[in-house]
Amino acid sequence: MDTYFKALKQILEGKDDITFFSGAGLSTSAGLPDFRSDENGFWKSNSPVHFSDFLSSKAFRQKSWQNNIAIHKKIKNTKPTKMHNLVNKVLKRRSNNFHITQNIDGLHRSKDNENNIIELHGSIFKAQCLECNAEYETLDYFKKLNTGEDFICSSCQKGFIKVSTISFGQALAPESLEKAENASMTCKFFIVLGSSLKVSPANNFLRIAKNNGAKIIILNKDLTPMDDYADIVINDCLENIYEEIK
């Protein structure tokens, strides 16, 4: 295992192009629950709303917005982890380093690296009209709503305003998919951080990287169904891994 840590440290400090791919495990050390280890029942109380239900029912639209406001409250006093900061340090070093993330919490964000971070599943901080694409700040829009009012766009007066997170049944943004695919095709090292690699199409980027000659490194607390693709697998919490390579 020491050999793996030394190799990982050399890769992160080297000059080769790196693409990170992160899931919920990157943020659990910051105190945010993931779906599979939801000990306090946060996701049971704020169960996701399917996209078709959001479109068909005001009650579901209200539920969807309540979920996102609950997430805002959950992360209000949460700070990025040491591994978040390490990733951003690596991104800042080279313009060809990228971070593809499934996370919507924004802990991965950095003003220095915003063009190198690809949010596959969107963000809780922006909302958008599904009809005219007008954009709103999530909390600002929510505060201006009257009690019981539906989430109708004030610009076009007909489209529904939805927080810019990807719901079940909703297509991922084509531009994000294209950028993530390019980042996967061109990297020398593809490093997975805290993802179960069970969600498609997100887990296909590992295959794309592998098929284009990248070395695959999987850092995850548990085994994944794609460990056989990897050149290095380390099963531990990311913060523990960080302490070995800092």
What is the count of structural domains?
2
- Unreliable parts: none
Helix/strand structural class: alpha/beta
Distance between the termini: 15 Å
Number-wise, the strands total 9
CATH fold group of the largest domain = Rossmann fold
In DSSP terms, counting alpha (H) and pi (I) runs of 4 or more, how many helices? 9
> Biggest sheet, in brief?
6 strands, parallel
CATH structural class of the largest domain? Alpha Beta
Main sheet: strand order: 3-2-1-7-8-9
Mean of residue pLDDT? 91
Radius of gyration: 19 Å
Task: Name its key features.
single chain; about 250 residues; alpha/beta; Rossmann fold; SIR2/SIRT2 'Small Domain'; 2 domains; six-stranded parallel sheet; three-stranded antiparallel sheet; 9 helices; about 35% helix
Describe the structure.
The chain has helices at residues 2-13, 42-45, 51-56, 58-75, 82-93, 138-144, 174-186, 204-211, 238-245; strands at residues 18-22, 98-101, 117-119, 122-129, 135-137, 161-165, 189-193, 215-220, 232-235. By secondary structure, it is of the alpha/beta class. It folds into two domains: 17-32 and 81-121 and 173-246, Rossmann fold (3-Layer(aba) Sandwich), CATH 3.40.50; 40-77 and 124-165, SIR2/SIRT2 'Small Domain', CATH 3.30.1600. Strands 3-2-1-7-8-9 form a six-stranded parallel β-sheet, sandwiched between helices. It has a three-stranded antiparallel β-sheet with strand order 5-4-6. Strand 7 (189-193), helix 8 and strand 8 (215-220) form a beta-alpha-beta unit. Helix 7 (174-186) packs parallel to helix 8. The longest helix has 18 residues, at 58-75. The chain is elongated, with a radius of gyration of 19 Å. The mean pLDDT is 91.
